[in-house]
Automatic annotation (TrEMBL):
Domain 3-keto-alpha-glucoside-1,2-lyase/3-keto-2-hydroxy-glucal hydratase: 41-245
Alphabetized InterPro entries for the sequence: AL/BT2_dom
UniProt-listed Pfam families: 3keto-disac_hyd
Parts of the chain that traverse the membrane: none
Originating organism: Niabella soli DSM 19437
One of the record's GO molecular function terms: hydrolase activity
Name of the protein described by the UniProt record: 3-keto-alpha-glucoside-1,2-lyase/3-keto-2-hydroxy-glucal hydratase domain-containing protein
Amino acid sequence: MNKIVLAALAAGLTVSSCTGQKKASGTLQPNTLSAKEKAAGWQLLFDGKTLNGWHIYGKQNAEGSWKAADGSLQFDPKAKASGVSGGDLVSNDAYENFELEVEWKASPGVNSGIIFLVQDDKAKYPATYLTGPEMQVLDNIEAEDNKNTKHLAGALYDLIDAKSTSKPKPVGEWNLATIRLKDGNLELKLNGVTTARAKIGSPEWDQLVAGSKFSKWKDFAKFKSGHIALQDHGHDIWFRDIKIRKL
């Protein structure tokens, strides 16, 4: 009888251990798609091993301070400090109506972001954020930008207050960011909690922009289609399990 109980306990512990290895979005292996996800139209934007499908903003390739290592896309500020070129990492493809999921892991004091609807024209737009709205990536505890509640993790950066909805996991743990955009209707979620809803181009949206730092940027969020960008803000940051589906 004791052996049976021990075997059952062992089995239970094994199941618990496997469950504990689940990634933030709920499947066992990062950078993979289940049969159900494939059937729903999801596509991986990161293969877990290379920078294929990405380039540095304003360049033709991804060579620089970004690297693929340990199953994640990583920005290395030490490499940038040593003279290796930095810059935001931009998807080769552009998207219009889509749902995007990205897992991110912060270092202490990190500030970064996931920018979308980016126009890939550095000659005309020196920075990705001049055209693309941003979902904030932040260490809410130690980051210098944590005083502004429109700049907290998961916020629609500088546009919508996230004081009551920003609930990132502790530094070193993976967070799940979701961006859903359909015919201008935008919804952001951080770890399953909605942090922002807005209708891009509506009178309410125009009011949000008018009250933000973007008010004088004539082409901010003016395009229906654009690229995804991962922000180089000079801090250690990790992204993985980046996937998208067209809506």
